[in-house]
Structures are given as C-alpha cells and as structure tokens.
Amino acid sequence: MSTGVQTRTAPTAGQHADGPRLLADIGGTNARFALETAPGEIGQVRVYPCADYPGVADVIAQYLKDTKVSRVNHAAIAIANPVDGDQVRMTNHDWTFSIEATRRALGFDTLLVVNDFTALAMALPGLTDTQRQQVGGGQRRQNSVIGLLGPGTGLGVSGLIPADDRWIALGSEGGHASFSPQDEREDLVLQFARKKWPHVSFERVCAGPGIELIYRALAARDKKRLPANLDTADVVTRAQGGEPLAAEAVECFCGILGSFAGNIAVTLGALGGIYIGGGVVPRLGELFTRSSFRARFEAKGRFDAYLANVPTYVITAEYPAFLGVSAILAEQLSNRAGGGSSAVFERIRQMRDALTPAERRVADLALNHPRSIINDPIVDIARKADVSQPTVIRFCRSLGCQGLSDFKLKLATGLTGTIPVSHSQVHLGDTATDFGAKVLDNTVSAILQLREHLNFEHVEQAITLLNSARRIEFYGLGNSHIVAQDAHYKFFRFGIPTIAYGDLYMQAASAALLGRGDVIVAVSKSGRAPELLRVLEVAMQAGAKVIAITSSNTPLAKRATVALETDHIEMRESQLSMISRILHLLMIDILAVGVAIRRASPDADVSDAVARAKENADDDATAVLDWLSHGASSTTRD
After folding, report:
1. What does 208-219 look like in DSSP terms, one character per residue?
2. Binding site: what residues are annotated?
3. Residues annotated within a binding site for ATP
4. Of 43-47, 476-480, 565-569, 575-579, which range is least confident?
5. Is the N or the C terminus of the chain less surrounded, counting Cβ atoms within 10 Å?
6. What is the pTM assigned to this prediction?
7. Inter-CA distances, 93 with 81, 88, 350, 469, Å
8. Is residue 500 within 8 Å of 488, Cβ to Cβ?
C-alpha cells in the first residue's frame, strides 16, 4: 500500500544527465521515497508501511515498479539508525541488510545510506522561511554552527559545521545523554522512570513516548489510575481537549526539551540556530508555542544572554530528509566527477574537453557509470559508449594508464561511497550472496589499500637483494608456510638456489649455515614469534640479509634489513588468515616480477625482457613470467 502524495519544488535548468535519482527516508514505521529529476526538482513521493515488506530491497523494488521508472543509477537513503560500515541492522524494525549487496541486487551504480538525522541536518541550510517556524527571539548568525534535535520515536541529535563553501554534518547519539531534572516535578519523573530502566536518558523523557511516561508519572503522583493501553497520541488529544493533567504532562515535556535544546546550543556553540525536527513537536501546535520551551532553553544562568541571541526553529517542511539526502548524494557524485578527493576523476574532468568526441563518450561513461568501466569487459564498454574498442584503449592511455586494466584499478581506487573502504563482518545467518560478497569486497578493499600505502622504495631494495642473492631461503610458520612454498616454486626457476622451510628446527639448522650474499624472506602475519626472531638474528650476525613480509611496527619489521608491510583488518582472530595470506602472496608476485625484469635486458621492452628471462629459466617457465608475458602482449594488442 502506498500514498501518491507528491511534492514539487521550483525546478532549475537542466535535468540530471545520469537520469532520475532515488531518494528515501526510512523510519521504523514507514518508508518514504521520491525521485529527483533535476537539482531541486523532487516528485513522485510515495509512502509504504515497513511491516508490509520483508526487506529494504523489496520495498525499493516495489516503488520503482509503481513509478514505472526504467532505470535509476544513483540512490541515497536516510535511515533511522546508526550507520557504521556495510551492515545495517535497524533498531526500530526487524530489517537487516548489506548496503553493497542491496546496491548489486537493485543494479544501482551508487547507493549511499546515511543516518536520518545526518540527512536532516544537511537539509537545514536550504530551508526557506516557509519551511520553518521560529519560536522565541534570537537572530541566527551566518556561517555559524547549527544544532538539530528531533523528538520522534527516539531523540535524534546532530549538527552542522561550516567548512569553506560546504557543511560537515555531525553524527551523534546525544539523545542518550543522562537526563538531569531541573525541578521537583522532574525529580518525580526521573524516580518513576528509574523503576523501568537503570539509566534514564533524555530520550526516555523527551522523545515521543516520553509524553506518556510523564503523564503516568504525574498520575501516580495524584494517585490517579490510567488505562493500560493509553499512548502518547491519546495524551496529546486529551491535552488539546483541555484536560489539566494531560496539559501539565505536555508542558513538562516541552520544558525538558527546552533544557536539552539549550544544552545542545552551548555544547556546539550553535549561533546559527537550533532546529527541531521529528514528528512530535509539529503535532503539539499551540501547546508547544505557548509552553516554557523557550524560557527553559535560555535558562542557563550566566549564559542566559548568550542563549537569548540563539534562535530556535520548528521545521515545518513536509519531507525535509529528502532535501538532505539529495545534498549528500550530489556532493558525493560531484566529488567523484571532479572533486579533489579522487585524482583519477579529476583528471578525466580536466581532460574531457581536449578529447575527441568518441573518447569524450568513454569519459562520460566513466564519470557517470564508473562501475560499468570497472566490471564490464572491453566489448561491453565500447558498446555502451558507442565507440570502437581501440578508442577505449586510446582513452585509457590519454590518462597516462598502461591500458584498460590499469585504468580500471585506478578508477576503483578513486571510487568512493559504495566501494568497500572498511571491513564488513560476516555474520551467522548470512546467505552465500552476502558472505561471498563480503569476503570478496574485504579482499578487494585490502588490496587497494595495500596499493596506496605500500612503500615501493622498500620493494626496490628487496628486489635488488633478491636479484643479487647467492641463495634465497623462505621461512614461514603455520599458514605462512604456504606462502613460503609458493615463493620457492617461483624463485627457483630463476636459476637461484632456493628452498622453503616451515619447521623451526630446519630453519635454525639452515640459517646457521648462511652468510654474506644470502637472503632470507621471512613471512609472518604477527611478526612476533620469538623463536623465528632468534633464528633470523643468527643469520644476520653472519652477514645474511632478511626481507620481512609482515605487519608494520612488529619486532620482525623493526629487525629486518627491509620490511614490506601489509597491514589489513582480518575477519576474526579465530579464523584463518585469509586476507593476510592473499596480501603476502601478492607481495611474492611483485618481488618475482621485479626480479624477472631485473634479470632481463634493462633497455628492452617488457615482452622482450620476459622472453629473455624465460630463456634463462627452466623449460617449465615460471607462472609469474607467463603472467607478465600475457600482460605485456595484452597491452600490445590494446
């Protein structure tokens, strides 16, 4: 079921080039959706009861079906829930979902999910006088901090900090600050609430349910019995009908809210004003405007005069969260297309006008649909951009990339907002789609972070040591022994004497025989095994060099001749070291490719270099040389 209510603000010139954008405001009870076809042009608002749908993807799919929209590329959701990482578990409803899995299921290029109060905060600078009602005095100061609170099912808190020509929204759980009574009546409310909860926060008494709580506390004071099924709406109706006890409860609620709003104002220094959102206050009408809210807001002793100059507003806009998520999504896409946060997108934007018309179509595809570039083969990219495959390659090289693969990697690194940049935890009950995507995304994220932070000077030093080594020994304990064996299989085909040891006794016996010209490559996730450290110390005292593939700031990294640091977030300490093993294997591949190139003629091209390296290797050519040869020939074909 949905309601077809629509809202439309004054349109501005130009539709979104990438099609309509989906905006959503999801609470514990209802999910609201809209389409933004151009900046400031929002319509097709529909409301769906959350209880009617098994999950967020289902209700979004229903909305897209109802509005008959053929394609949405970018979407943003404001949700009444903390958002920390990929997994979202709603506190006021039973929906749990992965942001990335939902994006894939719906076929979006971008899916942003933000806290609803963060979205509401971002809407504040754009509100007009007709979308807010001032309560009390005060004059807002331009380009100053703005505070936001909203009593609804819970008590949301946020704020906006001006930063140059944009705003930074604060994520906050300030509603859970401890309630502090200001008079005897509020002492009574606190005592009543403590019978239910060991900790009484402001959210307990000045969110929507707090009105009912206060009413029952005052009824208990007056020894008045109340029906068990009474709720906040009933109390407000009674107060508006003139019942003294209900009116007192609403007045007490407004006073507590005023004190809390004053706390937010002095905490943030909110000279730009305090805004009140949520669904409760607008329904109180004159009960709120005639209440002690403003007097209690200013009642801060020595700071009375300070707060008297801070205005307070009630937000009256019908769907303000849409304005906020629209602003957040626009900033995200702007950063992607030309902001300073991504060098590759900035480079595309700067070069676009200098490209040929055909190459410009590839540039537009990369800016508006980056995931198509990242995920699709070259034949599909060329088809979507309506160009030839060589044009795609020319575009990539015009950006300074070796070819399409290199451009895809740089584009993935620059793509922010929905590509995983932090670790997503696998949970019991995850489907194969969910945990499979998390394992892959976590690995991709770790590889991209390694690419950004790897010390390539250390890589060069390690390759120099390996290339000139008389003998190379690879040491790894436990899971790391697999990596050591892989390295042994690669490097012995270069014609260098090499061996891999996964047993401490064999490592100690062999290390004692090493000397100048010998190199040990020690692979360890923890870098702390004392026995391994003693073995390496013996070899180094005899003149051998040690290359460590390990985490940063470990004893092994600090003692090694060269440390190649591979930091990452592992899924759980009790599980296998999946990500660390992959990163360690990648480091071995990098070192093997480097040695292969060093052993070839330095003035030959890559394909010739690999061919000569193969001539000097065994007939069973190393896998890394095959890979490098394939990569070189692919680049030539491009």
Report:
1. HHHHHHHHHHHH
2. 24-29
3. 24-29
4. 575-579
5. N
6. 0.54
7. 10, 11, 46, 62
8. yes
